[in-house]
Amino acid sequence: MVMVLTRSVFFGFAALSVTAAVLAGGPERGAGMDDGIVATFRERNGAVFADWPTPQALLVLTGELDGYIEPCGCTGKENQKGGLSRRQNFLRAVRDAGWEAVPVDLGGQVKRFGRQTEQKFQSIVDGLRGMRYAAVGFGPGDLRLPAEELVAAVAPIGDEPTPYLSANVGLLGLDANITPRFRVVEAGGLKIGITAVLGDEEASRVRNDDVEVLPAAEAIAAVAPQLTAAGCDHQVLLAWATPEETKRLAAAFPQFDIVVTAGGADEPPFELPQLPGGGRLVELGHKGMYAVAIGFFPDAARPIRSQRVPLDARWGEADDMIAILATYQQKLETLGLEGLGLVPIRHPSGRRFAGSAACAECHADAFEVWESSGHATALTTLEEAVPRRDGDPECLSCHVVGWAPQRFEPFEGGFMGMDKTPQLAHQGCENCHGPAAAHTAVERGDVRASTAERDRLRSELVLSLDTPADREKVVNNCLECHDLDNSPHFDFDEYWPVVEH
Ligand code: HEC
Ligand code: HEC
Ligand code: HEC
Ligand code: HEC
């Protein structure tokens, strides 16, 4: 079976059934792989490796994951690209077909910081090890984590060396460095030399006393002769730098024939642009939605071919990566919202939340509309996700009452778990109208208030679509949650009628 596939039609239009067979026949194939899905996504996002002969080695370049360990599924996971699980299955498909894959990552696994990000970084590194990465660089987000977390995640495990390397970044200082400066990988009879640097501009933004960074050009100058001496067939430079800085480095060191940069466009270009020195510049896009694959061939006329690979649903899910995600979610669950160091922030109004059920007795019509909308089961969505996500602040923030959606932090008196605040489950009334505990108490007669005070509390909750300014305020509130990542097709005129009351 594999023999047939290593021929030129791997994943080409002619190979639909063969492709599906091999994809579905791997050792740890998850759900969702069938001919229909492969065909659908080929149609939508393009076939890959059509008409390629078997490469000697296939360099698979990834990076700039930016924390997107897995697509959230907010618009249906099948409509989103990226995630470690699909990346693993793509690599498996290639390896199962007998191609020699050399996965290499520019770095930039995470963007935020705090306990959750530390746990996530560890899980992502576990994932990269599970995918047998040959080399991984550091991005500035990674280097903002506390050094002890970085070292714990990156350190060699027994005989297994760290996949990390950097010519100019030293954790705990360069002397005590635990990552090599470069690596020569042998694959398909080729020697591929790889080194990585953090660009000077980015380095100046990493404020971490335990991380020492040398000027990039100086560090490459020290490594370059060693790569030359190693007799590499190909040399790869991973530059976490702006495309401008990367191009300057590439011009100064033309020995690198593959130069990977950060900070490019959102999606990688279809073709790799050629650098003045003859090398190829690689952009990866953002959020790990694509891999860029470069095949090396013993063909003087066409020694390399490249392909941007959309990591879409055609690849299906990989059980081992899903297990890593589940472990990550369990760790979040175990730490709990307090253990994750979440300190509730003040709501701009200074008011408290009552929960949607408290409104039902007086606002029956509004309640009925809400109750039959998706907003009223938003937390259930997270509970039923596999693995479940109801302990993940990065999911809860838009799926419960009383959080700052874009900050992934609770407001004072906001949802803090089903045990403590079950009344604040789901995306409820007060995320749009504002906290209404005082209004509820006054209207119910639990608290005495003057008529003026009662009216003031009512008026604070009023929303309206009457004037353009009122409408803009409402729409902006929707967009706090219905943002480009989580609701890319949001259109107020289409969405409002579904929840209108
Ligand atoms: C910034 C706000 C926000 C965050 C953070 C967020 N979501 Fe969502 N989610 C939404 C919105 C808005 C929708 C509805 C999208 C639409 O229909 O256009 C949604 C819908 C969903 C749906 C689809 C529900 C259905 O029934 O169709 C799933 C599943 C989901 N989210 C899971 C998650 C998970 C898992 C996470 C964390 C990784 C997450 N969400 C984080 C805002 C968010
Ligand atoms: C005990 C009855 C009662 C409860 C409980 C109650 N309200 Fe009210 N609410 C009223 C009354 C009465 C008014 C003023 C008359 C009206 O506009 O309906 C009002 C006004 C409002 C308004 C302003 C409507 C407008 O256009 O003037 C909003 C919004 C509102 N309430 C939201 C809520 C929310 C959200 C909750 C639950 C957290 C809630 N109310 C709980 C009785 C109640
Ligand atoms: C605090 C976050 C948040 C805000 C604010 C918000 N939404 Fe949502 N919305 C969600 C989430 C989360 C979902 C997905 C719920 C699910 O199915 O799990 C959703 C789903 C929806 C849906 C699909 C519901 C269905 O029944 O299929 C519509 C329509 C919608 N929102 C409209 C709006 C509109 C219009 C606004 C502004 C007036 C708005 N939303 C404000 C978080 C929010
Ligand atoms: C997705 C945001 C959103 C959610 C959730 C929401 N509302 Fe509203 N609500 C609005 C907007 C926007 C208006 C103004 C509509 C208009 O002017 O036509 C409104 C209007 C109202 C009004 C005034 C109605 C009127 O015409 O006077 C009340 C009362 C109200 N909502 C109560 C509630 C209650 C109670 C809940 C929860 C059961 C709730 N709302 C959930 C956005 C929301």
If classified by CATH, what would the architecture of the largest domain be? 4-Layer Sandwich
Hetero compounds: heme C
Average pLDDT score: 91
Largest sheet: 5 strands, mixed
Question: Which of globular, elongated, flat, extended, rod-shaped describes the shape?
Answer: elongated
Task: List how many beta strands DSSP finds.
Answer: 14
Can you put this structure into words, describing what you see?
This protein has 501 residues and is of the alpha/beta class. It folds into two domains: 2-325, Metallo-dependent phosphatases (Purple Acid Phosphatase, chain A, domain 2), CATH 3.60.21.10; 350-499, Flavocytochrome C3, Chain A (Flavocytochrome C3, Chain A, domain 2, Orthogonal Bundle). The protein is 36% helix and 13% strand. It has 19 helices and 14 strands. It has helices spanning 2-5, 16-24, 35-45, 84-96, 115-130, 140-143, 147-154, 200-203, 216-229, 243-252, 319-339, 364-371, 378-384, 393-399, 429-433, 437-443, 451-461, 468-481, 492-499, and strands at 57-62, 101-105, 135-136, 169-171, 182-187, 190-198, 211-213, 234-240, 258-261, 280-282, 290-296, 304-310, 403-404, 409-410. A five-stranded mixed sheet has the order 3-2-1-11-12, with helices on one face. Strands 5-6-8-9-10 form a five-stranded mixed sheet. The protein has a two-stranded antiparallel ribbon with strand order 4-7. Helix 5 runs parallel beside helix 7 (147-154), helix 5 (115-130) packs antiparallel against helix 11 and helix 13 packs antiparallel against helix 14. Mean pLDDT is 91; it is low at 1-33.
